[in-house]
Predict the structure of Thioredoxin domain-containing protein.
Amino acid sequence: MTQQAKLKNDLKGASSPYLQQHQDNPVHWQQWNAETLQLARKLDKPILLSIGYSSCHWCHVMAHESFEDISTAEVMNELFINIKLDREERPDLDKTYQLAHQLLNRQAGGWPLTTFLDPQTLTPFFSGTYFPNRPKYGMPAFTDLLKNIAGVFTEKREEIKQQNGQLQEALQFVSGSVSRAEPSNEVTAKEITEDFINEVLQRADKDFGGFKGAPKFPQAAIWQTVFELSVNGDSQREQINDHLQKTLSAFADYGLYDHLGGGFFRYCVDEAWDIPHFEKMLYDNGQLIKLMAEAGHYFARGDWMQRVKQSISWLSEQMQSEQAAYYSALDADSLNADGHSEEGAYYVWSQADLQSLNEEEQAVASHYYGLADKPNFEGQWHLVCRNSLQEVAEKTGIHPKQLPLLIESVRQQLKQKRDQRALPFLDDKQLTSWNGLLLQGLFSAARQLGDEDIFQKAKMAQQGLQQTVHKDEQLMACYRDGAAYQPGFLDDYAYLAKALLMRLTFDFDRESWQWLIQLCEALWTKFADQKNGGFYYTARDAETVITRHKSWSDDAMPNSACQALEVLWLVSELTGKLDWQEFIEKSLHSAKHEAVKAPLQYPSVVRLARAFERGSEIWVLRGDLHQTVAWQEYLTTGQYSERWVFSLRSDADVLEQKYPAQEKPVAYCCRNRQCFPALDSIAAIKEFLN
C-alpha cells in the first residue's frame, strides 16, 4: 500500500471549527503542516488547497455538493494531496494565495478559494473559487476540472515550472517583499487627503448611503477616516458630513443591523442596504462599535448610541467566552422550522410570527420594522427600519411619545421568540487580532457613553487575552479549547497595542503599560523593515511561503502597519524615545507614495499621514487622581481624535523622568513636537488651550 493510499481524513483533531466541519468528509483532508508538505514533495503529487472559514455560505455549498460526495472524493483522493485551511487561523497563507489567484486570473478571489499547488515550490499553477458539482454558471463540473488539472500537471511540467518562476517574482514584487526605490519628492498629507475626499464624493451613493452599486460592505476603515477628517475641518466638510451621516444612518436603520439582538452583519447584497449576508463577524462589530460611538457622540445621535449599546449586549450574550474574550463569528445559515439548514433562518419573519403580539403591537411592528411592505427575503421579512417615528405614528394613529416604549416591548417579545430558534453555528475560536479591534471599540464606546460597565467589560476581555494568548512575552494568534496556538501576526500585535494605548487613557496601570512596551519592542524587532520602512505581516522567525507581505492598503480590517506605526509614534512621543523617529518618517514617506495612486484603498494612510503632519497632542497629568479627574474630564470632553490624555498618580514609577511629580498636581502638555512648562490648575489649562 502506497503512502498516499494510507491517507485518511485527518481533521478530527484540528483546532479550527471550520476544519472540524469537514472531519466526516470522504475526502482525505490533511492539515497544513511540515509532514503533509513533505509527503506531497516526496510523492510529487499536486496539492489541492481549499481555503475557507466557518461562516462562509459558498464554502458550505461546495462542501455539500462536492466534498460530501463519495465519487468526487474518490477523484480528489486519487489525484491530489488535499489540504483544508482556515483562513482565519492562517491569514498569511490566505493573503499569499488570494494574491496569486488575482495575478493568475486578473480578478479578485474570495472564499472558498480552490487552488492547485506545485508540491516542490508550493506555488499555484491554477486557481479558482467555488466550482459546481455539475456544469453550470459557465463553469465545468468539479470532477472534470480535477482530471484536466491533474493531466496538465503531468504533461506540462516544464511550462508550469516556467510559469511558477514568473509568478513567484510577481508575488514578491506585488506583496511588497522586494524593496523598491522610492521617489525623492514629498507627497503631502493635504494632497492625498483631498484626493481621498474627492474620490469618496465621486463614488457616493446619494440615494442610499455608502458607495454606488451592490453588494455593499460597511468598509469601516474608510468611514472612520471620513469621520475624523470631517470633525477636524478638512475641505468640503459640509458635503462629507452629509454623506457620512446618510451612510451611518443606513448602517443603523436598514438591513445591515440586527434590530432585535444587536450587532452588524458582514455586508448587504443589494444597493439599498436591505438584505444582508447574514453572517456576523467580530472584526466588523469591533470597528463599527467604535465608529458609531464616536460619530454618535459627535453628531448627538442617540439612536446610533443605542445601536452601540445593543451590539455590546449581543456580544456579551452570544459571543463572550469563559475567559471574557470574544468568539470569532456566527454563521449565516441555521436550521429552519423544518430542520433544514437555510441562510437567514434565524433572523427572518412571517406575519404568522406576530400573532403573539396584541393588535396595537402588531401595527407598530408592521410599520416600524417594514412588515407592512412586500416581503423582502424569499417570501419572508428581514427587519428594516425605514419609517421615522413620526411616519409610524401617522400610519398607526399612536402618539409619537408612546411609540418608543411600544417599540421596545415589541423588540423584546420578538427577540424572546427568536431566542427559541436554533442559533447559527458559532465559531468559538478566539482570535487575538479581532479581539484587539473589539477592545478598541469597547474602550471608545466606554469613553463616548461615559459607561463604566462597558469599560469593565473591556478590562475583563483584556485580562482574558493576557491570561490566554500572551506566553513568555510572545503573542499567539488563536485560542481554543484551553490552548493557545499559532504565533501572532502583525494584526495581533498592532491592534492589541493600539487598544492598550486607548485603555491607558482611563487608568494608567503599570501592567497594561508594561504589556504595551513589550508589544512595541516586538513590533520593532520582529516585524519592522528597519532599513526601508514599513512592517512585514509575518515575524522574522515565522514560516515564509513564497513571500513576506508588506502593505499599506486596507481591506475588511484596518491596515495593521498603520496601527503599528501610529502606536510607535505615540509611545515615542510619550516616552521621549527618539530612536524610532527616522523610521516613522521613512515609513510614512513610503506609505504616502503608495497611497497617492489610489487613496480610497488607503484610508488608514490618509488618516495617519494627516495626523502626523498636524502633530500629536499628549497630556500627562500627575498627582492625586481625585484632584486631576476634573482636568481629565475637561480635556477629553468632545471629539478630538489627536488628543491623548493620561493620568498618573504622583508615586507611579513610570514616565517619571519626562513628567516628574511635584508638590501639587500638575499637567504636562507636549503638542506639535514641542513640550511646554507644567500647568498647576484647571484655570491654567483653560488659558493654555485658549
Notes: The two ends are 83 Å apart (CA to CA).
